[in-house]
Amino acid sequence: MSSSLENNNLEAIYESVKEHYSKQQTNEAKISNSCFLAKKPHNTIQKLLSLIPEKVNETFFGCGCPIPLGIKDLTVLDLGSGSGRDVFLAAALVGDQGKVIGIDMTKKQVELAKSSTLEFVENCKKVNLKVGSIEFHEGLIEELVTLLPSESVDLVASNCVINLSPRKEKCLQQVYNVLKYGGEFVFSDIYSDRKIHPIALQQLSKLGSCIGTVFYINDFLSVCRKLGFHVREVNRVELAASSQDLQQMLVGQAKFYSITYRLFKLKNLEMAEENYGHIVTYKGTLEGYPVIYKFDSELEFEKNLPVNVSGNVASVLEESEYLHKHFSILPNNRELHFGEFEIKHKNKDTNNIEKVVFQVPTCCSK
User: pTM to 2 decimals?
Assistant: First the structure.
């Protein structure tokens, strides 16, 4: 009986999300391209946006731009691909030997993405840009293994999507399954600094889908570690209430953040950051980053400057399909151990978290 009730509740949530995003696509609900993450995407990404069909850009709503540069020839999966914006961006970056797959649960969004593909390819041809193969599928993130083989994807991206699922851990498990070893899941979403009471979440859901299903940061990190991901935080922006009434609805002193994470699936993952004396030198060859490559919020690499890194970071750079060629790493073994790795490379702005005003409409407003 309880199992049947739970299934009905899950089905109701999925149908609610489908209805909401179907309305967004048909302009029955107000769409805003405003984004919680105030930082603009890389110049390369901004230029590519001009090649994307107008209807696709008009119906995009997300919490960041998670697609990295330097992903030539990779197989990329975009979760909650909507009308296809990030799929098209990725297709332009992987080149004609790469492949990009978009998965969305909303039929109307998938249909729009498919119908826009030819226009995007033609726009790219006009500027002599070769793009990868593009596929769009209707389906649930929680059922990825029914759509894709295990260990078949190099990079997974999502943009304000995982929070919409009532089965977040299941989503992350499915992502882990389809990723190759050395693969990466990069995504932006909304998080809270504490657990929010279900009644309060119901009130928050009136503001936006991703706020009403927010993930507590420590719960998220625990799930990731249990599944076997190595977690790196890239960027964090605090969402500040636009009024006192809204602040009260946001549960008193609770804080909400738009955060971009990188999750890596590694063969040589260790539970703690250990020191094996690894010295990494960035070659300056990663597309778009000729001098500085920012790995995450704590670590950046300057061209030709040796940097001491933990064993896990060394594993990321060794195993990643697209990063390994841009770094030299010594030693190439773990014969000597120097204890726990002490982080010494924090950027000076790490403690100064940027704030943006949270108000309706937002990127995922109802």
Answer: 0.86
